[in-house]
User: What shape does this take?
Amino acid sequence: MTSAIRLKLENIVKEYPGCRANDGIDLTVGAGEIHALLGENGAGKSTLMKVIYGVIQPDQGRIVWNGHEVRVDNPAQARRMGIGMVFQHFSLFETLTVAENIALSLPPDEARNRARLNQRIREVSERYGMALDPRRYVSTLSVGERQRVEIVRCLIQETTLLILDEPTSVLTPQEVSTLFATLRKLSKEGCSILFISHKLEEVRSLCHTATVLRQGRVSGDCQPADISANDIARLMVGDDTPISTQVTAAEPGATLIEIRGLGWKSKDPFGTSLSNVNLDLHKGEIVGIAGVAGNGQDELLKALSGEIRTGTGTITLDGVNIANLFPDQRRKLGVAIVPEERLGRGAVPDMSLADNALLTASGEGLVSRGLVRSGRVREFSREVIRRFGVRCTGENNTAGSLSGGNLQKYIIGREALQNPRLLVASHPTWGVDVGSAVAIHESLVRLRDEGASILLISEDLDELYQLCNRLGALCDGRLSPLAPTSELNIEQLGQWMAGEFESGEVAHAVA
Amino acid sequence: MLLLERRPVPSSLMRWASPLLALVLTIITGFVLFLVMGKDPVEGLKFFFITPVSDLSGLSELGLKMAPLLLCAAGLTVCYRARVWNIGAEGHFLMGALGASVMAIQLSESSGFWVLPLVLLTGVLAGMVWAAIAAGLKTHLHCNEILTTIMLNYIALNLLLFTVHGPLKDPFGFGFPQSVMFSDSALLPALIPGTRLHLGLAFGLLAAVAVWVLFARSFIGFQLNVVGQDHRAAEFAGFGVRRLTWFAFLIGGATAGLAGASEVTGPIGQLVPQVSPGYGYTAIIVVFLGRMNALGIVAASALLALTFIGGEMLQIAMHMPKAVTGLFQGLLLFYLLTCDAFIHYRIRRRKAALQPLSAAVTTASQEA
Assistant: This one.
């Protein structure tokens, strides 16, 4: 065994009740290698990472670390061995400073000498181009800066294998290039990096090698720079699934929605307030709102759905101001909403699909004189399942038992079958398998062609560029100007996502 | 080492087996308790569970105790389905008894078919008013309903005590704290002639049917379920959460108020301080034991009614203290909550520390 191999996994098997998450996975990461781990949601990436980081123990298989077979009992042991991990959802205390957060994960004797720790944080962060002030409170940091704290926390512990779980999903394009520069520098110094992602272009530009997982098994190893993104996608989804949607050009009609001076003040000190949002939506077009998570997307959605009402400004739908109407009243006027959280907001997990149809579609003749017409509810539910290709055994399945993609198809279908005039969809393909994502995109385009206005809120820039005919970005509750997608380059959009625009008044000028 | 591990899906078998298991454990514990106290356990359990229901008059007494339990439980089911933790059925019940009594005493000179409905309606309204206080405190001031309803129970009790010791006291009652006897037209007719069983049980069964219709058929029942299971989905769907909270409280107040009114116009026939042996609290156990299900609460209210009568039987036959009723009820709830944990969890033995690795090494070497 050569010393250049840092980590070698052999035949890793991990079984959960009813699901074999890892089914004999082999993986080899060399020293200083940036290795991508690709796969759709549910392919077993997270499980494999948890095995390496000692969060869970494999049922079978060997882990060889620097030539020695090891057993990783827990994350603390993984850190002592030199394995660091940055999770997709950061584990930081917002009310503590950067240094305090880092101290928490260090052995007590190292954590105690705070002056020396501050010094080390500064050294490490400057060396890798990630400026950080150790005395700042985490609550004041941007998402990108928080990620730096997580990475610096790993590097301070002399990490020789850094695992990053979808690190770019929370970053603007500019922040992504800074992160990649850091990772390349680390790699040159011999630190191995395991990079989990499903953004293929990123993987192609950054990673030396890639392992693709599908349904718990390795479906291929490749040099991502040498083959096309399409070929990688094929490895991820198999041969029988369409990879992308063909989107025809939109033919926008008359103005349907006018939003003027929309504002809302958050009561939560860490929440986002909306300020002076102006936006026009035409019939038969898809308008995309980009932005890094937590910049007011959810608030904008709630202001449109009616879950937030006590703000300023007007929302005019076909000449009627709906800003003060309740969600059910707006739904009657043709407003349909697909929220970001599928389970626990868009659908009740423990209720059947039929009951979940009743959640928003009661206006479709499913209720008469206060009584539920369960025959019609089932019929409506079966119609959604059939027309939108929801994979399930029937309308009696609980919402929680469906995969993310299937449930999302069901929720979109439920809204689409009500013939909405306005559909607001937030992250509709987040965590959804490629096949379902294509189906979801197709149903959005179909709805657009039937004359509905669609507002698509997403962090996935590829999706926005593919589907939308106008794009803007939210930053800190402010909406950038909107520009036709064909005239908007990604650098400009990145600047808007970072908040570099004049607020408010230009938004409808470009429209 | 034993581990409590979350089940991948909640066990539906355990959902219904848990109340039965709790009953069995309660009986076993009762057996041990009788032994420790030096009483014959078989005899004791027989007096508690079997003797009370061995003849018609026993059964009618059971129905008599079932009526208020079932009525209170029906209203509480509506509340608890929506996760409105109303503990105030006792207070609604007492206010219902008080309200009905005030009206009955006002009308003691009148007769006619309208007297009884008016008396009962006053009781219902009094219960609703009491529930409305807690509802308003919750929806407008965000006060926790568990605390407010418990406190309102004490206020209701003291209000009732004040009235029977004061304004409503029978002037010719030799100073006893009780009201005058109501006139016949303000009394509930008997269901079975010759027994004390009155129309209240029919109200209870009707309420159970209404609960069934509400949750099996109606849209508002569906909305209540959504509020209970997933608050954010309810807000997203635009079901007025505040409106539904009021609805649940008012139904809870109405049924418990009716239970209180039926009690004073039924077996008692006047207002007395001991109008409730804790029906409103016991009804909480009924709802959980009956799995918040219409048929379930009918069965559970029969069982809990039995604990009241069985407790009395033990006092008389075996000279046991009155606390035995509360003890059995408490044991039942305790075991029920314990067994309910196994709906979502199961026990698994932790594997020995190094076993998986050595097993993996052998498979790997075999393959090689």
User: Anything to note?
Assistant: Chain B has a mean pLDDT of 90.
